[in-house]
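Hey, can you fold this one?
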Amino acid sequence: MSVEIKQITKFFGTQRALDEVSFTIKKGELVGFLGPNGAGKSTLMKIITGFLSADAGEVFVEGEKTGPKNLEIRKNIGYLPEHNPLYTDLYVREFLEITAGLYKLKNVNQRVAEMVELTGLGDEQHKKIRALSKGYRQRVGLAQALIHNPPVLILDEPTTGLDPNQIEEIRQVIRSISHDKTVMLSSHIMQEVEAVCSRVVIINRGKIVADGAIDEIKSGKINRNQMVIAEFAETVKAAQILAIPGVKNAVFNEKFWEIESNGETDIRPAVFEFAVKNQLVLLTLNERQQKLESVFHEVTQNQ
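Sure. Predicted structure:
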């Protein structure tokens, strides 16, 4: 495993910010990390990167235990915090050269040139950072997180405050670097997570409430309720649908029935059997995927 998080607990005074959080991220995965404000996302990211200590539990990156005293582990981690700290009086290229020097890179000029090209900073590299737009400042932050070529990249709200064009540009950069790196991406933008991530971990009140592939979560396999869309050629009453084994609820929407299961069992065979038994023509029978946003609301509000 590239990142292993084992039973992490963290208190701030009497408040339990993280409550025995455990999950792993495999090498090469791009994982979206979601949760409401105050859920513990940034706290966990700071613990993973070694900027904050946990009260209990352990984190391993590339097989090595992280922590505030282990400075050596940071060569394996690239970190872009939510509030991107930059030396605004420095020129872009100058800042990246200093960062490369801190990591004791051998070919500084070559590596800086590669980061400038990768993050699209070519036209801005000779400007002072304070003169850049927020979108370009985020690019600088991403370049400094990547300059030492770490195998693990932690991005905390990388597109906060950016306009739609800037968001898409940063997404493109993240996609391009994710092919050979393990990436953990925190965001409040559900469309962003759906666009770039293959897996989602949702945290609420310091606990993991959902973890799985995006398609699994949207299909209801995580929160145990399947949604099926069925269309019959004939008129069917709600009482008939509700009598099908495994059906929890049924709503007629113009010409389709939206049927919800009462458990994790696939109810499509039961709906098909119902149609055959009653000699009904079944025009449509599909599993409906929910929006990630609706699943997020369900698992964070029901806790």
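The domain at 3-218 is CATH 3.40.50.300 (Rossmann fold). Let me know if you want another pass with a different chain boundary.
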